[in-house]
Design goal:
Helix content: 40-55%
Strand content: 5-15%
CATH class of the largest domain: Alpha Beta
Order of helices and strands: EHHHHHEHHEHEHEEH
CATH superfamily of the largest domain: HAD superfamily/HAD-like
CATH architecture of the largest domain: 3-Layer(aba) Sandwich
Radius of gyration: 20 Å
Number of helices: 10
Number of strands: 6
Amino acid sequence: MNKDSQQHIIFDMDDTLIHCNKYFDLILGEFFDLMTQWFHDYGVTVEQIRTKQMEIDVAGVDKLGFASANFPQSLIDTYRYFCKQHHKEPVLREEEQLFKLGLSVYDQEIEAYPGMVETLDTLQNEGHRLYLYTGGESRIQKRKIEQMKLADFFEDRIYIRQHKNVKALEEILSAGRFNRSLTWMIGNSLRTDVVPALTAGINSIYIKQQREWHYNLVELKQEPHNVLYTVSALTEVPDIIAEKAIAIS
C-alpha cells in the first residue's frame, strides 16, 4: 500500500469489538428483581429504580471515569436512596449482596461482535495501522484483550484510560504524532468516541447500537468539519476505509 493512503485506525473495544452493555443489562435485571422484592410494600416501580440508578451511575462516571467500583456502588446508592425515601433502615447484608452482584458483571464470559476477527484481518491485510483505545481499569481491560487475543492485531499500540474524553484522545494523538487527516476513531459512543474525534480533527465512524447505554448518548452540537459516517455493523468499516484510501491514492 502507498504510505500516503495508509490509514491509522483507532478502535474502541467495549460494544465496538466485544459485547459489554448486555452484561450490565443482565445484572441490572437481577438488581431490579431484588429491589422490587425489598420495596414491594412501598410501591416502588422498576422504572423509578431504573431512572435513579442511571442518574447515579452517569454522575459517578463523570466524576471517577470508568472505575470498576462505580457500577456496584451505583446499585448501593440507589438502594440507599429508596431506603431514605421510604424511611426504611438499610440492611448491611443487602448492601453487601448488591456490591457483589455489581462486581460480577466483570466476570462474564467475553464475546466478540459478529465479524470482529474478519474486520480486523481485512484492515490489517490491506496495510492499515490498527490501534486500540479503551476506557476502564487496566487489570480488567487487559484480561479482555488477552482473552480475545487482540494483541495479534494491535501489538503494543494499545491505550487504556480510566477517563475517555477529549483530553485523553488529544494526548494520545499528540504523543503519537498522528497525521490527523489519515486517522480514524471507530466506536459506539457519541460521548467518548465520536465527539472527541471530531473535536480533535480526525475522521470517525459511529457504530450505532440498537440499545445504547444512556451515558454514551449526547447531541452532536456542531457540524463536523471532518469525515463522519454512521453504520449499524462493525463489518461495514473496511469498505468505508477502502473508499477513503482509494480516493487519496
